[in-house]
Amino acid sequence: MWYSIHMKAIQVTFDEDLLTKLDELSEVRERGRSAVLRQAAADYLARRAAEEIDRQLEEGYRRFPAHEDPDLAGWTDEGVWFED
Q1: Helices 33-63/16-24 angle, 10° precision
Q2: Distance between CA atoms of residues 2 and 35, nearest Å
Q3: How far apart are CA 72 and CA 65, in angstroms?
Q4: C-alpha to C-alpha distances, 60 to 24, 55, 63, 73, nearest whole angstrom
Q5: Are 65 and 25 in contact (CB under 8 A)?
Q6: Interatomic CA distance for residues 19 and 13, integer angstroms
Q7: What is the DSSP string of 8-50?
Q8: pTM score
Q9: Which residues lie closer than 8 Å to 67 by C-beta, 6 or more apart?
Q10: Measured between alpha carbons, how far is 21 from 39 in angstroms, rounded to an integer?
Q11: Phi and psi (nearest 5°) for 62?
Q12: pLDDT tens digit string along 47-74?
């Protein structure tokens, strides 16, 4: 399970329109607001962690460029690189 068994109640303020849209979702009616908001928070934290890993990788490649390392010379010719 992605959250602790020991939960703490909190108070969160929502814009009425946002809350109405949230409450209209079948998933919210089935699972409840709290469960959906817990999942949204967990997804947000996972996305932030992945973004931090990407940031660290980019920083590492900037600090230690592969094209300047003789041990890695020519490695970019070995794979198939897709256009963004």
Answers
A1: 100
A2: 11
A3: 10
A4: 45, 9, 5, 17
A5: no
A6: 9
A7: --------HHHHHHHHHSHHHHHH-HHHHHHHHHHHHHHHHHH
A8: 0.67
A9: 73, 76
A10: 17
A11: -70, -40
A12: 999 999 999 988 988 887 766 777 776 7
Q: What is the spatial distance between Cα 77 and Cα 75, in angstroms, rounded to a whole number?
A: 5
Q: What is the pLDDT of residues 4-43, one digit of tens each?
A: 678 899 999 999 999 999 999 999 999 999 999 999 999 9
Residue in the structure block whose two tokens are 């390392």: 69
Whole-angstrom Cα distance, residue 29 to residue 49? 29
